[in-house]
Amino acid sequence: EIDAKRHALRFALGMDWSVVAAAKPCEVEQLYQDNLHKGAGLSTPFLQFFNLWQTSDSLKQMAFGLGAAVATLLASRRVQLYGDALFVKRPRDEMTNWHFDMAHVPLDTKSF
To answer: What is the mean pLDDT of residues 51-78?
Structure first.
């Protein structure tokens, strides 16, 4: 959860990633409570976790297994994992409005 809060601080407050990454967990928690918790100004509608396959052997095995299946379906020698993300909505998190995420995907293609 602390990494998700680091991510929220980075994006919502525009903080430099190196500053957020170097902050102690207690500092991250205080910044989050002061700036992003409901009623304190900005808010984050959910927790975000990225590249979980890098820290979970079971998710890595699943991702690589799915990659092999996708390569077979596409008749390709290989496919590349761009990344993964887990978004967690807690019971009292605010609603997320309809939106597009393509602006967050830096791929040089329009072939989707």
So the answer is: 90
